[in-house]
Design goal:
The structure is a homodimer of 356-residue chains.
Chain A lengths: L3 E2 L9 H12 L16 H17 L6 E7 L2 H12 L3 E6 L2 H10 L4 E7 L21 E4 L1 E2 L4 E2 L10 E4 L14 E7 L9 E7 L16 H6 L9 H17 L2 H21 L3 E3 L10 E6 L7 H9 L3 E2 L10 E4 L6 H18 L1
Parallel strand pairs in A: 1-13, 3-4, 3-5, 5-8, 8-9
Antiparallel strand pairs in A: 2-10, 6-7, 9-10, 11-12, 12-14
Amino acid sequence: MVKHNFYAGPSILPREVIEATAEAVLNLNGSGLSVLEISHRSKDFQAVIDEARSLFHELLSIPQGYTVLFLGGGASMEFCRVPFNFLKKKAAYLDTGVWAHKAIKEAKAFGEVDITASSEDKKYSYLPKNFKIPADADYLHFTTNNTVYGTEYFEDFDSPIPLVADMSSDIFSRPIDVSKYICIYGGAQKNLAPSGLSFVIVKDDALEKVDRYIPTMLNYKVHVDKESMFNTPPVLPIYSALMTLRWIKKQGGVKVMEQRAIDRAHLLYGEIDRNSMFEGTVAHEDRSRMNVRFVLKPEYQSLEGEFLKFADERGIVGIKGHRITGGFRASLYNAMPMSSVQVLVDCMKEFEKLNS
Amino acid sequence: MVKHNFYAGPSILPREVIEATAEAVLNLNGSGLSVLEISHRSKDFQAVIDEARSLFHELLSIPQGYTVLFLGGGASMEFCRVPFNFLKKKAAYLDTGVWAHKAIKEAKAFGEVDITASSEDKKYSYLPKNFKIPADADYLHFTTNNTVYGTEYFEDFDSPIPLVADMSSDIFSRPIDVSKYICIYGGAQKNLAPSGLSFVIVKDDALEKVDRYIPTMLNYKVHVDKESMFNTPPVLPIYSALMTLRWIKKQGGVKVMEQRAIDRAHLLYGEIDRNSMFEGTVAHEDRSRMNVRFVLKPEYQSLEGEFLKFADERGIVGIKGHRITGGFRASLYNAMPMSSVQVLVDCMKEFEKLNS
């Protein structure tokens, strides 16, 4: 049975990325060696990381003066790297749920944290807007897409201070104005690569402004100077990332990715709003294109397990909601074909016919 | 042409590990999904990490009271995690070269560092022995195998204080008395898995003894409590690690790995000592079984490039020495077959016949 992968992350990758990776695991570029066993100092890998870096610049129109890093770990490590490297006295954070909390927790060990705005009052079902950014903070940090609550910012704020953003789950799904940021980071395991890799886009002249000692591996400047090779980087995830970046370029770039994201979201939210058994959980204007949250209406909630089973029988994988929020979550990352979204929509229609 | 992979790391893995990984990239356990795109919360992956943890315990006879962690990153991150978690006032470090230096540098930010012994006087060509371990230090840290200089400790010291060891490059190549250690760590990219993964074996009751704030991702206790799932772990490297652990078990365990390591080293060092053109660089009793360093004798040193080319033509990859030390280095990790060592030995003999 064909599987439709709606996991929130690690998550769907383009089939040609998967096939190219499998081929490289057996034999990289006809070298007779596996991508699992080549030195990161080999010519073959140097070409991989150079091209991946260069495609980041090209696809996101990254201006001069920024460096793209590929590091082991995940976004959770960046939650502490960011204040280690950028927080002098005070930082501003938007509180939009789970991931923001984790970032805020780490920052508090380094200085004052101004919670500039929060949507906690309505269980993070909307996004704060029209907040006043404190001009005396070192940066404003926010999570562009909130995988757990299903909300997403689609703009790069005008701000009197530099922006820092966790774009783990929506990088490459829309154009970004990188010049407004001193740091954009994320785990790669949504729109880019398998897990075990972080990307960081860092503004060079924003570094080395803090006085504290930074452990070597947490110091962005070290990784900038060593071009992500201070220590052995995650070779296979970077290889897969390159395959995804080539795929994005071939599809037409981030503008095309954005249109597809809009179309997928439109199809699924349309069905959620139409279907008499389901409802959305998020303010309409803040609905994430990447992670679509929905629940059964109160009168049908006893059928939750049954719907999961019904979907599973149709090859639909990974739509069980996050343990904090319950209900359902369908993640629609770049690699998700419209045909899979249609399968989920048809499944919801069929379930309605049988049960409402 | 068949390749013989002597890279120092990332490095050779058993062919069946490579093939099983390629298969899982296309379709994991017949699930219809790739190991690159499954959630770390899926049943399939939970089974993988549970079995990998359990095989660590079994193959290394890890006593009760220890936890095995699989973390993103690499040993370089552990250089700062170790003092963050264990250094109260003073720590003792053995200085045996490049990796020890890096570990020492991080520790110095956290307290007093006693350089208990060093072999810097002879360019790290031997290993300090019969040193006096300070009884008032929190732990003694050492690098069991030194990939750059080609030296290796084959024993777990008797010590008045707990041991901490970087075993990146010789884990699973001999039995270890884990009970002497509070922490054994390493990057996985030598004897275990592709790069992007660290393993840490930590003694549970040695944790939470320091007063400082530890950033969440650097706190071993967090990862112990969350069973390596505080954040998304590197799924594919852990899958490959499991394949390697199964392979080690099938071969007969670490005792068999040790005998093979001894046999491979004996064959290659034997040729180095016999051959009129080459010589070793390390005190005989400290010669590493994992990384064999050798050079051309002074009168032949102009032929270095020629020997590399000669070897390359015979499918021998990765024997160029580290940029610090020059010369040659052949890494003989667990997956290295005797037949490949024989190819290198024959190549050295042939080169001697043509050039001496």
